[in-house]
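Deliverable D4.2, example record:
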Amino acid sequence: MAPANVDQQQKQEVRAPAGGRKVVDEVSGWLRVLDDGSVDRTWTGPPEALPLMQPVAPYAEPRDGHTLHDLPGEPNLRVYLPEVAGPGGARLPVILNLHGGGFCISHPSWLMYHQGWSQESIFFIAPARPPLSAPVYHHFYARLACAVPAVVVAVELPLAPERRLPAHIDTGVAALRRLRAIALSEDGGGPAPAAALLRGAADVSRVFLIGDSSGGNLVHLVAAQVGQDDASQWAPLRVAGGIPIHPGFVRAARSRSELEKKPDSVFFTLDMLDKFLAYALPEGATKDHPFSCPMGPLAPPLASVPLPPMLVSVAEDDLIRDTNLEYCDALRAAGKEVEVLVNRGMSHSFHLNKYAVDMDPTTGERARELIDAIRSFISRH
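Output generated by the structure prediction step:
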């Protein structure tokens, strides 16, 4: 069962905001916008989900074939280092993770799975609404680091509405600059042992951007911004590929897949989609903005956008499946190198639902297919 203090925590967290402040808008369970402009991200959904959002502490002793290190700085980075080296002891490619959460919530250190719970308690909790997107980052990216193998670097992104786009894009670019500085032994990692470990293990000439949901948008947007620069400005760092997973690409008009009746998803609803984008896009922008619709008429023609090879993962039962596929078609029409993996029978960010990945054979197989496709893509670029 859930920890004993959950009920007490929940009672404290659902009370009215202090100081007489009033809630003027909210995304149920996830955040509340108050009348003074501040944002309360206290979880107000089922109390059983509270432990799932606890951060995972770093560890220098290997667990399941990898170590985990934090690199505080601008921006904060979290580094997964597999124990295995590349072929012949070569350095490993780098996967830079830009987390999802609708630009408004989540953190790359969230857990989602408590090792102390019994299988029975997991089945009890699973139907409750677990945290969006980020909860399983730790488990998915630890697994990916060992499977590729690669150095996985997760970036702590700013959150809207306090910091709207393009702040998230700027942070993604800053993370790449910090990686370059660490590789060059310049100020970027400081004296932290983790910086030296990263420097010794990472081949920054093969950096792959990866992100799910809104993080998928950032894969496109960060790659496009870096691609505008002369390659010599970034050497030895090179963005070798992008991997948007179920990117949050939409239009102001609903797509057919958005209008289809689907079972409620624990990860994604139209209300979340609409409100998170309203909080994150520049003031006055619609979902046709290039940040959310790079294939639309308000965006630069894709043929003119410098992009690396892309592997786009599209969930067959995703609410925004159709606009994801439209993005892929637009990349092809623009002459870009793009591979598409359709996750059959899966919904938005399915791979981050550790309950389903571990317990449902079909979901587990689809997660393996996704990891295999990422490994193959990286091996060829």
